[in-house]
Amino acid sequence: MDEAMRSRKKVVLITLLGISLFCVISFFVAQLTTVTLYSIKMSRNTLCVNNLSQLWKMQYNYSVQFGGPRKRFPEETGGKFWLKLSDPETLLIDPELSDIYTCPLRLEAGEGGNSMPEVKTNYRGPARNVNQYSEDDPVGADRKTNHLVLEKWKLRWSIGEGSRNVLFKSGRVEGWVENDNPLWKAADQYTSP
Fold it and tell me: What tens digit of pLDDT does each residue of 35-56 get?
């Protein structure tokens, strides 16, 4: 009987060790998955910042090539301001490279990307003639829905509650989380879809 009792204890001990090991491994896999997903979203946010920055640099190219002696920016407003860069008369961005007009985080919501039938943008542009803006005024921004994710019929923010990026005329891009932030009020005032 002593031998049978030891055998049962060994089986119970091995079973408990197996279950414990499974729990520890599951915990680490869950942590690693969370960190990996967060890293992917942060890298996409970096791409979003880069898109806004590159669009603004291309507008400077536009002003040098087509802005006349005063090096003026296009007078279009909203998204049309950015799309002027792909206008056949002033082609600075080939329509084949239209991904620059799309927020990479917007792709998670199933919109944008290569599925767009024509060149469109989901970035906000200046609300009025950008040539009259000061260096500290917002000239571009994410649309409010750019960083949303559809997940099992529930909307949630992909990186923080209400995070969006704002491009200033000086060329700097800042990300902000709160919609009540004075920056967002300025972005809503100075930019339009």
Answer: 787 777 778 788 889 999 999 9
Paired strand residues for 173: 167
Domain around 82? 48-192
Q: Tell whether the model's pLDDT for residue 108 goes beyond 60.
A: no
Number of independent structural domains in the chain: 1
Reported pTM: 0.74
- Within a domain: 154: yes
* Residue 25, number of CB atoms within 10 A of its CB: 10
Judge whether 177 lies within some domain: yes
Residue 18 lies in a domain: no
Task: Tell me the two tokens of residue 144.
Answer: 């409010």
Q: How many CA atoms lie within 13 A of 108 on its CB side?
A: 21
Give the pLDDT of residue 133: 95
Cβ neighbours for 138, distance < 8 A, ≥ 6 positions apart? 166, 167, 168, 169, 183, 186, 187, 190, 191
